[in-house]
Amino acid sequence: MDDWYQLAQPIIFGLIFAYLLAKLISILVAFKDENLSLTRNHETQSEDDDSSQHKLESSTTVIGGETDSLVAEQELDEAFSAATAFVAAAASDRLSQKVSNDLQLQLYGLYKIATEGPCTAPQPSALKMTARAKWNAWQKLGAMPPEEAMEKYINLVTQLYPTWADGGSKRGKRSGDAAGSNSRAAMGPVFSSLVYEEESENELKIDAIHGFAREGEVENLLKCIESGIPVNARDSEGRTPLHWAIDRGHLNVAKALVDKNADVNAKDNEGQTSLHYAVVCEREALAEFLVKQKADTTIKDEDGNSPLDLCESEWSWMREKEGFN
Predict the structure, then answer these.
(1) Which residues are in the ACB domain (predicted)?
(2) Are residues 111 and 153 in contact, defined by beta-carbon separation less than 8 angstroms?
(3) pLDDT at 202
């Protein structure tokens, strides 16, 4: 019996030790898992916090960008309105600086783009000179963004009136109802009809008759003459429609003008007649036509040269006329 007791004692102690060791190991494993879980939860929470912070910063940036954009648009709109009000006030003051037709049309086109967008109106008749010019000024800007049109309008006004922004508001107030509380409304009539309407329309009609002679558009040219434009109207260089017809080689236009009593001996600013042009351009048929219409072959220009002097071609009919002039 004692032998069995002695044999069993170490076995029992071994089992107890093994149980305690296993228990200790399980406690350690459980503690490690719990620690790992806590660490993971902390990292996940940190990531969530970082993500929320990033989203908040992104949202703040977007809101800030949109706010800046809105502020910039509002400032541009206010500057454009101020510029249109100033121009309206300047237009009502006949003593102010006169703006050329070309610049008026540029302002008109930019204004229409800024306020109405791309041109969708039908093209006016060629006989409606002012309306056609304004339509062209608007239409040629295509699909320009309104903001760009506003900026260009402001820049153009600044070029014309460098100090307009300094005194624009005071002047706008003095103009009273002419400028009005709605500055854009004031701008509409001013450049829809152009500032110097009567003078502008006459100049445009004169430009048109020269353009028709230059391009060989006989029908439109005759309509201009029938509407009251002088057949011998001169451009800035003193050229008549006949000068242009000869210069471009349009015999049919030249004949139509002569039929309307065009002056074949009219001189440009350099003293040259249509016959000078025909000779220099070596347009024999046109030169012969003019001579038959009693164009003077001996008229001298500012340099002292006549068509005969300038003629290098062997045109016998030209020399024959020399004795009759």
Answers:
(1) 76-166
(2) yes
(3) 55
Query: Which tens digits make up the pLDDT trace of 296-310?
Result: 999 999 989 999 888
Q: Which two tokens stand for residue 38?
A: 């806590």
pLDDT in tens, 239-268: 999 999 998 899 999 999 999 999 999 999
Distance, in Å, from the CA atom of 210 to the CA atom of 203, rounded to the nearest integer, reads 11
Closest C-alpha to 255, from 293, 307, 207: 293
What domains, with CATH codes, occur in the chain?
Answer: 75-195 (1.20.80.10), 199-322 (1.25.40.20)
- Chain centroid to CA 98: 22
Quote the mean pLDDT of the chain: 74
pLDDT at 243: 93
Q: Are 224 and 209 in contact (CB under 8 A)?
A: yes
The CA-based dihedral angle spanning residues 114, 189, 177, 172, taken in that order and rounded to the nearest 10 degrees: 50
Which residues of 213-318 form beta strands (DSSP E)? none
268 SS3 class: coil
